[in-house]
Amino acid sequence: MRATRLSMALVIYLASLMSMNHAMGQMETDVGDAPSSKQPAQEVAAPVRHLHHFVLNHADAANLSALLNVVFAREHSSTRPYIVADPRTTSLIVTAMESDIERILQLVQSLDQPSRAPGADSAGHPTRVRMSTSIYEVRVPKDRLPSIRVDELTRNAKSRESLDEVLAEFGKARVLYCVELFPDLGSSSETVNYGAQVPVVRGTTVSKQGGTMSSIEYEPAGMILKTTCRVDSGTHGSAKVEIEFAGLSNSNIPLGNDVMAPVILNFKQQFNGFFQNGKPNFLLIVDAQADGDALVYVTSIQFNIEVL
Predict the structure, then answer these.
(1) Do the Cβ atoms of 189 and 234 come closer than 8 Å?
(2) Interatomic CA distance for residues 97 and 100, integer angstroms
(3) What does the alpha-carbon distance between residue 83 and residue 51 come to, in Å, rounded to a whole number?
(4) How far apart are CA 228 and CA 278, in angstroms?
(5) 93 shares a domain with 188
(6) Does the residue 33 lie in any domain?
(7) Bridge partners of 201?
(8) Residue 240 parent element (H or E)
């Protein structure tokens, strides 16, 4: 009798569990079927990159991959290609947008050339590089400084004349130095040193009689240009250019007794990398410390490969 009562209690307990599970399942079904108030997120398609393999015949894979990565890194594009060298197979593995593949192929074909003696093209003809360097000082209103960018100058200033016009749109420009030379195409460097001693007022004193005496010292002013250049093909090359500049700026500092002392400007610039034949490369330095207009120093370096 006692066993019968236990069996009936167990049956009632199991029935209640089944009823609860059925109710919970019904609730989950109802909740899952309820329409959602959230809109599906809009998926943004990621840029599609493709994998390509370029086998080299002559060029060193590591050097060429490093050179190409530097070229595309300067464009500051979020979709720029990635180029990795495979020394085992003397090849390049490229991950890039389809729009960049043709451009990469042209660069690889132009740079993958047999090694040759410095100063000769692929056919053995003697070549030289004419390097033209110009340094400008441009007085620019500070609200226009964001408009002066290297990429804008590269796009709009294709020659010396067009550069003069572009800089004139920003403010009053003057040429500080122009240098043209034919650097050695080997491993040795070429140096140009131009300088002068300019008088600078260091201080003033007033005598008992009321006279003014100025203390003058001579400071070196000029520029040093040091370059190492190499031609990789008839359209491309690489160079390292170091520039040191010292000169009088247009700013003056009052020393008292109506005496003004000029400000000596010193700066260093460096270009180290890949160049294209006839295409100028630009370096910028901005001095916006004064209360008035800012002074922008624009250096233009252009390489022209000439077959003799």
Answers:
(1) no
(2) 5
(3) 10
(4) 17
(5) no
(6) no
(7) 216
(8) strand 236-256
Work out the average pLDDT over 228-233. Answer: 85
Is 139 found in the same domain as 61? no
Tokens of 90: 């003397």
Position 119 in a domain: no
Are 84 and 175 members of one domain?
no
Read off the pLDDT band of 89 (50, 70, 90). Answer: very high
Q: Find the mean pLDDT for residues 89-95.
A: 93
Dihedral (Cα; 111, 113, 119, 125), 10-degree rounding: -120
Asked if residue 281 and residue 178 are part of one domain, the reply reads: yes
Q: Which two tokens stand for residue 148?
A: 């002066």
Rg for the chain, CA atoms, rounded: 35
Task: Evaluate whether 302 touches 131 at the Cβ level (below 8 Å).
Answer: yes
Residues of the domain holding 83: 50-111
- DSSP characters over 112-150: ------TTB-TTS-BEEEEEEEEEEEEEE-GGGGGG--H
Within a domain: 163: yes
Q: Is residue 117 part of a domain?
A: no
Query: Which pLDDT tens digit goes with each residue over 137-195?
Result: 999 999 888 888 888 898 888 888 889 999 998 989 989 889 999 988 877 777 888 77
What is the DSSP-derived secondary structure letter of residue 58? S
Q: Which two tokens stand for residue 115?
A: 């090694």
> Under a CB-based contact definition with an 8 Å cutoff, are residues 180 and 132 in contact?
yes
CA quadruple 75, 77, 79, 83: dihedral positive or negative? positive
Q: What CATH number does residue 98 fall under?
A: 3.30.1370.120
